[in-house]
Amino acid sequence: MTQETTRRICILGGGFGGLYSALRLHQLPWSPSEKPEIVLIDSRDRFLFAPLLYELISGELQTWEIAPPFSELLSHTNVRFHQGTVVGIDLDNRRVRLLEDVELSYDRLVLALGGETPVDLVPGSREYALPFRTIDDAYRLEERLRLLEASEKDKIRVAVVGAGYSGVELACKLADRLGERGRLRLVEQGDRILNAATEFNRNTAKAALDERGIWIDLETTVEAIGPQTISLLYKGKLDEIPVDLVLWTVGTKVVPAIADLDLAKNKRGQVLVTPELQAIDRPEIFALGDLADGHDASGQSVPATAQVAIQQADYLAWNVWASMSDRPLLPFKYQNLGEMMTLGLENATLTGLGVKIDGQAAVVFRRLAYLYRLPTLDHQLKVAFNWMTQPLREAIAKTRATVSSLD
């Protein structure tokens, strides 16, 4: 039983920002008298390494590799995991209220709940479009794909809305999975794909899309989605196109628990934070990742990416520790290490630190980089062993199949 005098750090959200902050807080040198209780709260029981979610759809990776349970990741730490859904925060009394009729007090609060994909932006999108952001989204997509693949349809028509990183990566993976049966189109409101990407990655991605025969609708808006149609507006002309599956990868919004908070926010509802990642009007509250809007020590605005959240987690953990042990806080300094993308099976692209790579070499480098970024050493070793032994297991299985066919 936690004593009432024990201070508590509540971390809301177990994504990159929340989990990595918790792991770093566990590692910091707390004195016996200062050591707080660290509680990580998430509505799901598993962490998700989101950049590898596409490999789940293509069958290249398994769920346990990209979505290990929090209980496993935190088993050798003093971080306590509590599965629950945050429905409210009492800022004045410093209490977090969960859907499960549980309340937790806090001395320091870390907001790391991330964002949600808005699927109610056009008529029919909520009913007929699928987002692709969580492990549950991947499961729903897998179920739909299996039904379509088992059907008698000659062609499977898929529309991916949004030609940002998620849309392009998802379209390439689906095109490779569906093969000759797939008829994919990528719908983008802007005048080019991957608006925020480097020119090398954009050109490489464009070539990958063209190679797979993916139709790209630029300067096109979605007007409505029906059970088997998508209505597209291009230069004043409205076309209703038959489709079997619509995937929605556009936009992000803060979760309701954050939207309702009486904290200073920007027009998109993100919490305004100082370079030290503190809410500007509540120094006991820290925020990072998708729901935070701030600038680093040099004044540059930082993007909402996994790379940023992982870097922020180190600074945030230090600053929470420093604020509870009378030490100076450090302003966040963002280091842009480049960007990586998967572009179907056995293809990827990356730029960063003066390097530009695509093709098979980029696939290997991307896998190794993400292996290094997995949250704990134990999980890194399990995944690495599985990747190294997979070719041997596949060869043995192939040999057994060949022998069986000869009997």
Q: Characteristics of this structure?
A:
alpha/beta, 6-stranded mixed β-sheet, 407 residues
How would you concisely characterize the structure shown here?
The protein is α/β, with parallel strands linked by helices.
Shape: globular
Main sheet attributes: strand count, strand direction, barrel closure:
6 strands, mixed
**Fraction in beta strands:** 25-35%
| CA gyration radius, whole angstroms | 23 Å
Oligomer: single chain
How far apart are the first and last residues' alpha carbons, in Å? 64 Å
Q: Let me know the average pLDDT.
A: 93
Strand order in space, largest sheet: 3-2-1-7-20-19
Total number of β-strand segments? 24
Protein described:
The longest helix is centred in the last third of the chain and has 30 residues, at 377-406. The protein is globular and about 65 Å long. Helix 1 runs parallel beside helix 10. A hairpin with a 4-residue loop joins strand 4 and strand 5 (95-98). The strands form 7 sheets. A 6-stranded mixed beta sheet has the order 3-2-1-7-20-19, with helices on one face. Strands 9-16-10-11-12 form a 5-stranded parallel beta sheet. Strands 4-5-6 form a 3-stranded antiparallel beta sheet. It has 12 helices and 24 strands. The protein is of the alpha/beta class and 407 residues long.
